[in-house]
Amino acid sequence: MRFSNSLGHTVVAAAFGASLALAATVPARAQSELLNVSYDPTRELYKDINAAFAEDWKAKTGETITVRAAHGGSGAQARTVIDGIPADVVTLGIPSDIDAIARISKKISPDWRTKLPNEGLPYTSTVVFLVRKGNPKGVKDWGDLVKPDVKVITPNPKTSAGGRWNFLAAWGYAYEQNNKDVEKANAFVGQLYKQVPVLDTGARGSTVTFAQRGLGDVLPTWENEAYLVFDEFGRDKFDIVIPPTSIYAEPPVALVDANVDKKGTRKQAEAYLQFLYTDQAQAIFAKHHYRPLKREAAKKEDLALLPEIKLFKIEDLQGSWDDIQKKNFDNGGLFDQLGKAGR
Amino acid sequence: MQERAVGFVFQHYALFKHLTVADNIAYGLNARKRSDRPAKAEIKKRVGDLLDLIKLSTFGDRYPSQLSGGQRQRIALARALAVEPRVLLLDEPFGALDAQVRKDLRRWLREIHDRTGQTTIFVTHDQDEALELSDRVAVLGNGRLEQVGTPDEVQEHPASPTVLKFLGDTIEVEAIAQGGHVLVNGRETPVSAPDGLVGPVKLYVRPWQLQFADAHEAHLEGFVRSSYRAQGRQRIEIDRPNGKLLVVEASDNARLAAGRPVGLKINNGYVFSN
Amino acid sequence: MSEAIAPADFPAAEASLRPPASVVTETGWVRWTLIAVAVAFLALFLVLPLVTVFAQAFAKGIGAYLAAFSEPDAHAAIKLTLITAAIAVPFNLVFGVTAAWAIAKFQFWGRDLLVTLIDLPFSVSPVVSGLIYVLVFGSQGLLGPWLIEHDIQIIFAVPGIVLATIFVTFPFVARQLIPLMQEQGTVEEEAALTLGATGWHAFRTVTLPNIRWGLLYAVLLCNARAMGEFGAVSVVSGHIRGLTNTLPLHVEILYNEYNFVASFAVASLLAGLALVTLVIKSVLEWRYADDIAAGARRH
C-alpha cells in the first residue's frame, strides 16, 4: 500500500477548511432559508404548511424560499434553541417552553404573546384518548384512567409538551371533579402515573409505543395525533374516545428575534408567522386535525372531527404559566414529588 | 549518522520484511536525495555485484521471511556495504545464529573483508570470534578500554585480569610473591614474580597450564565432581576447598570417578597484584 | 519373531489404553451443548435482527424499498453520512498513525497521559460526548459568545456532527496501531537511518508499509463506527430535516413518522455496511492476523 502522507495532510486540511467555510456560510445561505423548530407531532403538518408558504411567498415576492423544519420533544427543542440552533421561528407545544427560551437565552422578547393574534396561537388543540378497537377496558372519561387494570401510555412531562398537557388535563379534571380540592387532584395524578409502564421522550414516541409496539390500553394524546394514528395504522385497530371535558391545549408560535436579526431574515420570518393566520393555513390546520382559530376557514368534513366539547384553561385553575411550570414540572415540583412517593 | 557514513549490521538483521532482498540491499542508495542518487541501472548493477559477493546471486526476488538466519545476515551485510560506508560496524551480528552457522559465517566474513578491504569494527562477547577474526582486538571491561593489540599480544601479554578472563577460561588462585617467585599454598611454582612485587598476589592459570600431580607436588587440591566428554576431550569438574569450581581438560582416556580426590600442579600462569 | 503377538496376549495393557467409555460421551454432550448455546445466542442477537431489518424493508416490495431512497431527505442523509465519514476517518487516520508512532517509538513526558486521553472516548457514553460539544460550542457554552460574534455555527450544523463523530472514533486507529508498532519496535527504522534515510523517508518506506494491514483494519472499524454513530450525533445535530440528519438519525425520523418500511429500508443500508465491514474484517484477520494484532507471532 503506497501511502503519501503529505497528500493525506493536504486533503485533510482542505476538508477541514471546507467544513469551517461551510459553517461560516450558513448565515449567508439562510437568507432564502428559514428554520422552524417545532414540537414532535407536527411533522406532517409543517410539510404541507411550508410548501404552501413557499409557493405563496414566491408568488408575492418572486423569491424562492425554503423552510426547513426540525422536530422533537418540545422541551428538548427549546433547549436546542437556547443552545444556539439558528431557528428563525419556534412553533412549540406549550407556552412555558417559549418562556424558557426568552428567559434563559434572551433570544425571544419576553412579551412575545402580544406580537401575534390570540397570544401566538394560530391553532389550539386538546387531549383525547386513543384506545384499542372496541374499547375493551371501557375508557370513557378521565376517571377511567385510574381503573386498576388500565395501563396508560403518556410521554415524560419533563421533555414533552404533550406529556405536560396530559398531566395538566388529568389534574384539571380531578380538581374540578373534587370541588377544587388540590390534595385530591394531586393524588389522582399520582395514581395515574403509577399506571404508566413507559415514559417516552416525545408525543410521537408514545404513539409508536402504543400503536406499533402494542403496549398499554389507552393513549391520552393530542387530538391531531390520535387521528393521525387512525390514518397511518388503520381504523380497524383503534377507536378514538373524546372525553366530555378536556383541556384547552395551547401550542404557540413565536419569532426568534435575536436569530432573525442576525441572519437578516426578519421579513421572511414575520411573513411566515403571519401566513399561519391566513385562511389557507387555517384550512390546512383543520385538515391535519388541529383546531384552527378561524373555524370558518376550515372545510366542513374536517370540522366534524373536531367537536366543541367543554374545555378548561389551566391558567384559570393554577395561575400564570410561570406558576404552572414551577409548581408542576420544575425540579422538586409536583411531578418529581409524585415520582418519589411512588417508589 | 548519515554524514558519518557508518554502515551498521544488527544482531537481529533488521531487514525490511516488506521488501525483496534486492530492494533491501538497494535501500540506502534509493533513500538518497535525487541529486545524489545513482541511476536505476547503476543501482541494479551494484546490487547484483553485492549479491555475487555474498554468494546469493539468485536470491534477489525473495523475501527475508523465506531465508535462513545465516542468509539474512549476509544480506544485511550486503545492504550495509551498498552505501560504501567509511566504516562498517557489526554489533554481535552472529549472536542469533547457531554454533555451526556462526563458524561458517565467521570464515566468510573474513574472506569478504580481505576481498573488499572495508574497515570493519566487530563487536562480540565471544572470544573465539574476536581472536579468529581480528587484525586488532580491543577489550572493554566495565566501560573502560582495557587493552588494544593483536590477538597474539592480548593472549600472551594481557594487560589486566579483565582481558585475561575475557580471552579464555581462567582459574583464579590466591598466591604469594616472594623472592622473585610465586608460591601457592606454600609451594613454589615455576611462575616468576615481576620485579619488586612482594606479598599477596593473584595468580591466574589457564586450564591447560595445570597438570594432575601427586600430593607431594600438587599446588591445588580438590574432589572430582563430574567428568564429561566434549569435542574429543574429557572435561573434569573439580570442587576446590574454597568452594570454587575448577574445570580442566584432559585427554579422552583420562576418566576419573566422582568423589575421587585429585591434586594439580601449576606449570605456568599470569601474575597480577591484588 | 516366529509368531505374531496377538492382542489377546496383552489384555491388561489393552484395557488400560482404551479410555473409559463414559468420559467420551460426557465430553461430547457438554461440547455440543455449549456450541448450541453459542449458536442460539448469535442467532438471537445477530442473525434475527439482521433478517428482520431486511424482511421489514422489503415487506411492501421492491418498489416501496427503492422509494425510500428517492426522497430528498434520504439523499441529504446519505450525503451527510458520507461527508462525515470522509472527514472523520482520514483525520483519525493521520492522528492515529502519528500518535501511535510517537507513543510506540519514543519516550517522552506525558506519554501515559496521552494514552489515557486517547482511550477517553471509549469510556465516555456517546450521548455525553455529544453533550460536551454542546456545552463548549453552544450559545450558552464556553465558546458560545465568541462563536456568535464571529458568526460561526458549529453545533446544530455539519461541523458539529463531524466533530462529534471524530471524537467517538478517535481511539480506533491509535489503539489498533500502538501495540502493533510497539511490538515491531524501532529496529527497522534505525537500520533505515543508518543507511542514510531521513526520518521522513524512513517513516514512509519502512514504518508505514509495516503497519499497512493493521491500518486497513483500523480504518475499516473506524469507518463503520463513523457511519453508524447515533448518540453523540443525535445530541449535536438539531435534527434539521434535509440538513443535519445522518443516516442513523434519518432512520429514527422515518420510524417516528410511522414510515416503517422506509425506516427499515434505510436501516438496511446501514446493515449492509455492517455486513460488508464484517466480511472484510474477517478476511483481513484470516490472512494477515500477524500483521494486525501484536502478540500473535510464532517464532
TrEMBL record, chain A:
It holds the Pfam family SBP_bac_11. It is found in: Periplasm. GO terms for cellular component: periplasmic space. One of its GO terms (biological process) is sulfate transmembrane transport. InterPro entries: Thiosulph/SO4-bd, TonB_box_CS. Residues 1-23 form the signal peptide. NCBIfam families: 3a0106s03, PRK10752.1, PRK10852.1. This is Sulfate transporter subunit. It comes from Methylobacterium haplocladii. The lineage of its organism: Bacteria, Pseudomonadati, Pseudomonadota, Alphaproteobacteria, Hyphomicrobiales.
Automatic annotation (TrEMBL), chain C:
It comes from the Bacteria. GO terms for cellular component: plasma membrane. Gene3D superfamilies: MetI-like (1.10.3720.10). It is a multi-pass membrane protein. InterPro entries: CysW_permease (IPR011866), MetI-like (IPR000515), MetI-like_sf (IPR035906), Sulph_transpt2 (IPR005667). Keywords: Cell inner membrane, Cell membrane, Membrane, Sulfate transport, Transmembrane, Transmembrane helix, Transport. GO terms for molecular function: ABC-type sulfate transporter activity. It is found in: Cell inner membrane. The chain crosses the membrane at residues 32-59, 80-104, 124-147, 154-174, 258-280. Its main location: membrane. The complex is composed of two ATP-binding proteins (CysA), two transmembrane proteins (CysT and CysW) and a solute-binding protein (CysP). Part of the ABC transporter complex CysAWTP (TC 3.A.1.6.1) involved in sulfate/thiosulfate import. Probably responsible for the translocation of the substrate across the membrane. This is Sulfate transport system permease protein CysW. It comes from Methylobacterium haplocladii.
